[in-house]
Design a protein that fits this description.
- The chain is of the alpha/beta class.
- Helix content is 20%, strand content 27%.
- The protein contains 6 helices and 14 strands.
- It has helices spanning 39-52, 84-99, 116-124, 136-139, 142-145, 178-187; strands spanning 24-29, 56-59, 105-108, 148-149, 153-157, 160-163, 190-193, 199-208, 211-220, 242-249, 252-259, 266-268, 271-274, 277-280.
- A 6-stranded mixed β-sheet has the order 4-3-2-1-10-11. It has a 5-stranded mixed β-sheet with strand order 5-6-7-9-8, covered by helices on one side.
- The radius of gyration is 19 Å and the shape is globular.
- It starts with 23 loop residues before the first strand and ends with a strand.
- Residues 1-13 have low confidence and may be disordered.
Length: 283
């Protein structure tokens, strides 16, 4: 699908909803934490984008890990590891893998890990904290990929928004899908989020006399390689690898989760995505 003239909001932000009368799909990618990303899953995501050519691709935040400027690294050897440039360059290679041959909408939310640089500068180097060179979009050179930084809470589809999920007003839950559902209740709109690293859909129905309306929260997991996460001492966490999709037809929206196996492979629409390649799924 070649680029179209995307409509804009009153603030000038590009919107995904390019044709309310035609069916389209938006792919949602959760926390990757580059360079702790799962390389197999990242390659398979690239294959999925090329295969289905979604109308939009939205990353829900924590694209980068940024361990060095983390508050947990302050005063430790990790703070002086000097790996921010390496992480940024590795992140740009991932974006190039996903977007070099993709012409639809591309947007990234800024997650709490992504904000670590700006938080660090404001606290420890305020004299240079406001330099535009540190803006997240410039850091990843998003303009070169035709991508934009999305607002904290951003329209996704009719009756739906996407957000990272670390918003202070959202009550976190250990149950997959419940954090996104809590956000949906708070914001009175259906919500897709990442942040929790859990994958699930929670919904309730509201109405009377058979005229019901759902309130839905969808959490889309993570695509991090848990073997690379140093603070998981035993390698265990209540996390699930996954991706999200929303299928839109007019004002009807169907959310969908794609569960990702530990090796980074997954099945979608009768196709298996493994090692960056596609084949028909076994019957």
């Amino acid at each position: 699908m070649r680029p179209q003239e995307w409509p804009t909001s009153s603030e000038g932000t590009r919107l995904i909803i390019h044709d309310r009368t035609s069916p389209y799909t938006v792919l949602l990618i959760p926390d990757t934490h580059v360079p702790e990303h799962h390389t197999g899953a990242v390659a398979n995501i690239a294959a999925l984008i090329g295969e289905i050519e979604p109308a939009g691709v939205v990353h829900t935040g924590d694209f980068l890990n940024l361990d060095a400027p983390s508050r947990w690294s302050k005063g430790t050897i990790n703070e002086f590891a000097g790996n921010v440039h390496q992480e940024r360059e590795q992140g740009k290679r991932v974006l190039d893998l996903w977007f070099s041959d993709y012409y639809g909408y591309k947007g990234l939310h800024v997650g709490n890990h992504d904000r670590r640089i700006s938080d660090y500068l404001r606290k420890y180097a305020p004299a240079v904290a406001d330099m535009p060179e540190w803006e997240y979009g410039r850091l990843l050179d998003l303009d070169s990929f035709g991508a934009e930084v999305r607002d904290s809470i951003h329209p996704l589809a009719p009756g739906w928004v996407s957000t990272h999920g670390d918003n202070r007003e959202i009550k976190l839950s250990p149950d997959a899908g419940k954090t996104a559902y809590n956000a949906a209740v708070k914001y009175d709109v259906n919500v897709v989020c990442g942040h929790t690293h859990r994958a699930g859909i929670v919904q309730t129905s509201h109405g009377y006399n058979g005229r019901m309306k759902a309130k839905i929260g969808m959490e889309i997991g993570h695509v991090t390689d848990m073997r690379k996460v140093s603070y998981l001492g035993t390698g265990y966490a209540n996390w699930q690898m996954a991706l999200g999709l929303v299928h839109v037809n007019g004002r009807k929206v169907q959310p969908q989760l794609i569960l990702v196996s530990p090796d980074g492979s997954f099945t979608y629409d009768g196709m298996e995505f493994r090692n960056g390649k596609i084949r028909k799924a076994a019957k």
